[in-house]
Design goal:
CATH class of the largest domain: Alpha Beta
Bound molecules: flavin mononucleotide, iron/sulfur cluster
Low-confidence stretches: 407-411
Number of helices: 18
CATH topology of the largest domain: Rossmann fold
Number of strands: 11
Length: about 400
């Protein structure tokens, strides 16, 4: 199957950021402003699903902001990318900064906004530099004021209410909802928080139409998506047609599925799949959700056959516990307790009821935080208990690891 390059079409990655002149020569200008104001029906017809993790219909989201904007909404382009296994957003911003900016301009005109905030992970220096240069290149043409704001290098800083909180008050901790950002966000205005990849797709749909967007894909899964594939030898970015079998994407990423025991799909907010389930998996966000899984932010991280899934999970849970924004008791204490128990099991120091405790605590945690951080962490630990059931039993009851030689990294 050929690679359907859309977002990544154009100069090869070694070229670095596409300039404004190159971008306009290749794609032409965005449609004029009066047409941009009517873009929502095309977005709805395209079926574009958001790429920050939730796979929510982008057109519907724009409509809900447009209904309350009165021309004074704010666009917050989310390029925080705090997910450790993902590289898609930073790469997109670094290579195609003008496509991301086009998407933000389109969103501003589409929903009725008069300000754009580019919220970019402070660790993503190349992306940040590319956006700054891109803004300078088209400074005379920008129809709305654009601010670039650094997102703190924390997992939770990319959550939408945390992003709004940081822009407003310099505090990147989530706030209790409601009001949600689309009701009251930056400076109290209705705010469209949209992942940078979602915006870039919208910028192409505005040029080429919804039928063009839907013209690639398999079955009900339409369009393309950026996916970060990783294995023992590193990671790489691909643009895939949605509906592609996971094994094809893994093979294209240079990872041998025959030497893979499990795949972490969707990143730390997603879940583990054993290799047999992975072989049967199609990368279709809607079908995945229907089966209790998640495409998430497009992470496909392969755990080598000789690695220990318990140890990999312990590492992830320790990270997730450490990233709690420390303001909701169940999240702070619950995640720490679960991470400690998984850590004890992993290191052969399990207490007799640690496995039962993890199951009990995680059952009590979902939905108990101001944001969904604990829900994601609990989903991950559940998938680990299922996928690595034997390994967990072996570690917990017999205090042995059948794969002692490995690194335990998911990627
Ligand atoms: C703990 C947590 C971390 C998140 N981090 C990010 C992030 O780094 N980047 C991102 O685009 N969305 C992130 N999200 C999702 C955002 O809350 C929001 O849904 C998204 O930016 C909206 O854009 P989209 O609709 O285009 O996906 C995170 C959500 C949670 C719960
Ligand atoms: S649930 Fe956790 S990460 Fe989310 S706001 Fe509460 S303490 Fe912070």
């Amino acid at each position: 199957m050929s690679m359907p390059e859309r977002l990544l079409a154009g100069p090869p990655s070694g070229h670095g950021a596409e300039t404004f002149a190159e971008h306009e020569q290749r794609l032409g200008a965005l449609p004029p402003r009066r047409l941009r104001r009517d873009v929502i029906p095309a977005l709805e017809a395209s079926g574009l699903l958001s790429r920050g993790g939730a796979a929510f219909p982008v057109g519907r989201k724009w409509r809900s902001v447009a209904e309350r904007s009165e021309g004074a909404a704010v666009i917050l382009a989310n390029g925080a990318e705090g997910e450790p296994l993902s590289r898609k957003d930073r790469t997109l911003m670094a290579l195609r900064p003008h496509l991301v900016i086009d998407g933000a301009i389109l969103a501003a005109d589409g929903v009725g906004a008069d300000e754009i905030v580019l919220y970019v992970g402070s660790a993503h220096e190349t992306a940040r530099a590319a956006l700054i240069r891109a803004l300078t290149e088209r400074a005379a043409d920008l129809p709305h004021p654009v601010r670039l704001i650094d997102a703190p290098d924390r997992y939770v800083a990319g959550e939408e209410s945390a992003a709004v909180h940081h822009v407003n008050d310099g505090d990147a901790r989530p706030t209790a909802l409601p009001p949600r950002p689309y009701e009251r966000g930056v400076r109290g205005r209705p705010t469209l928080v949209q992942n940078v990849e979602s915006l870039a797709h919208a910028a192409l749909i505005a040029r080429y139409g919804d039928a063009w967007y839907r013209s690639v894909g398999t079955g009900e899964a339409r369009g393309t998506a950026l996916v970060t594939v990783s294995g023992a030898d590193g990671s790489g970015l691909q643009e895939i047609e949605l509906g592609t079998p996971l094994v094809d994407v893994v093979a294209r990423g240079g990872v041998d599925i025959g030497r893979t025991q499990a795949v972490l799909l969707g990143g730390y907010f997603g879940g583990w799949l054993g290799v047999d389930a992975a072989r049967a998996t199609i990368l279709d966000p809607v079908a995945l959700r229907a089966s209790g899984r998640a495409f998430g932010c497009g992470v496909v991280a392969c755990l080598p056959a000789d690695a220990c899934g318990v140890r990999a999970t312990a590492g992830i849970m320790t990270f997730m516990a450490g990233q709690s924004a420390a303001q909701c008791g169940p999240c702070v204490f619950g995640l720490r307790a679960i991470a400690d128990a998984v850590g004890r099991i992993s290191s052969g120091a399990a207490q007799s009821d640690d496995l039962a405790r993890i199951r009990r605590w995680s059952g009590q945690l979902a939905g108990r935080g101001a944001c969904r951080h604990p829900d994601g962490a609990v989903g991950l630990v559940h998938s680990a208990l299922e996928t690595f059931a034997e390994e967990f039993e072996c570690h917990a009851r017999m205090r042995i690891c059948s794969r002692p030689a490995m690194s335990g990294r998911a990627a």
